[in-house]
Specification:
The protein is an all-alpha fold and 427 residues long. Helix content is 78%, strand content 0%. It is globular and about 55 Å long.
Length: 427
């Protein structure tokens, strides 16, 4: 028996002629912008610690990234809504380039206020890296939306893996230009964001969101009967609201559990004698699992359905939390296995949730809704990061991972019970 939310593969309407070109352009920009994102995040805390002279303030970049990304998600979503994906994403990548350049200038002039401004603008630009996944689904048929989203996320892995590996080379370049060594990754981020903006502006033609709106323009409909209430302009049908809420909830849960456990695992490992190299390897494996598992997630979303894949993601997140809970503190391989599962569970939830939101959002308002959803996801992730420290401080790593397992289990039960969502994804 198929899931009520599973699309009919045999009824595949075929892909829009421009879809292959759109995905090719998005893959190229994701590789570039992924490198920009990873390179900046890799040294952000170190740069703040060096310039501020305080380890206690090393978390400032993460807070500024998150605030900037939340503002950027809303702004880029509105820009895409008004002008299309091409101008909106180009604007976002351009903002990331400006923010990266401001950070480089701040290091050269030893200006902390300029550093904070640069990190905030840089964070706003990084929102484009995640919003681009929606562009991959604009022209995809409902039967292939999951795979379209996963293709864009998978491309991000190449840049995210390459970015940190270029920290040494870009540091050498910065020193050759008489700049502080830690500004080097932001030089890379500047160049990568500029390149992503140029590629998007030059080649993301035709605009996928504009085409999707044209294709979705409904024919004239007869007036409703007296017994049937007329639809309210600007209001989504109840079924679409339920699907969008479910998709947003899946993404929020995945983000909160993943961020909370990922944030505190290096601290937990350091407290039990593991070096930074070992902790870095564990986090690297986690990051790889987050994006490299995208093809599996996309396949499952399209073949088994949105909700079943979301429920599987919650199960995997719960398994990851439980494994981290029982892992001996001195066992790096067990913790690494838990973090790999954590990344896979996040991807399953993120791809399925993204697809559910895209299914529900009407083409004429799709980008604005998607931007608002990402604001919620980012704020939830930041809250999870803050709460993780409090949980560990009050009850240890076990309290944190146990809480994550309970949340994932509760989500699994709720998702499996949701049999009343609409049966057919929006075209």
């Amino acid at each position: 028996m198929t899931s009520p939310t599973a699309p009919s593969v045999t009824a595949d309407r075929g892909e829009h002629p421009a879809q292959r070109r759109v995905l090719t352009v998005l893959v190229a920009t994701q590789i570039l912008s992924g490198a920009a994102l990873a390179a900046g995040i890799t040294v952000g805390a170190l740069l703040a610690e060096e310039m501020l002279g305080s380890t206690g303030l090393a978390g400032v970049p993460s807070a500024l990234f998150t605030i900037g990304a939340a503002v950027g998600a809303a702004g880029i979503g509105r820009a895409c809504q008004r002008w299309g994906r091409r101008p909106g994403l180009t604007l976002g990548y351009g903002g990331g380039a400006v923010g990266s350049l401001l950070v480089v200038a701040a290091t050269a002039w030893d200006s902390v206020p300029l550093l904070f401004l640069g990190l905030l603008v840089y964070g706003a630009g990084t929102a484009s890296v995640m919003i681009a996944r929606y562009a991959g689904a604009d022209l995809a048929s409902p039967e292939r939306r999951g795979r379209a989203v996963s293709t864009v996320l998978f491309a991000t892995a190449a840049g995210a893996i390459a970015g940190p590996g270029l920290v040494g080379a870009t540091g050498d370049l910065a020193e050759a230009w008489d700049l502080p060594r830690l500004s080097g990754p932001f030089l890379l981020a500047t160049a990568a964001f500029v390149s992503a903006a140029l590629v998007t502006w030059s080649f993301l033609r035709p605009d996928p969101l504009v085409l999707a709106r044209r294709a979705a323009t409904p024919p004239a409909t007869p007036a409703p009967s007296p017994a049937e209430p007329a639809p309210v302009a600007g209001r989504l049908p109840r079924e679409d609201l339920r699907r969008m809420a479910a998709g947003g909830a899946v993404m929020v849960l995945s983000q909160v559990v993943m961020i909370a456990i990922m944030t505190m695992t290096p601290v937990h490992m350091a407290d039990h004698g593991h070096g930074t190299g070992v902790a870095g390897l564990v986090i690297g494996l986690h990051m790889g699992a987050m994006y490299l598992s995208s093809p599996l997630s996309g396949y499952l979303v399209d073949r088994t359905g949105r909700l079943p894949t979301a429920a599987l993601g919650a199960v995997v997140l719960g398994a990851a939390a439980l494994l981290a809970y029982v892992a001996p503190p001195g066992s790096a391989p067990t913790l690494a296995a838990a973090l790999i599962l954590l990344g896979i569970g996040w991807n399953l939830g993120f791809v399925s949730g993204t697809t559910m939101v895209t299914d529900a959002a009407p083409a004429d308002r799709r980008a604005a809704y998607q931007g608002l959803m990402d604001v919620g996801v980012l704020v939830a992730g930041a809250s999870g990061g803050l709460a993780s420290g409090m949980l560990v401080a009050s009850g240890g790593f076990g309290l944190l991972t146990g809480t994550g397992a309970v949340l994932a289990l509760a989500a699994t039960v709720l998702l499996l019970a949701r049999g009343g969502l609409p049966k057919t994804p929006r075209g």
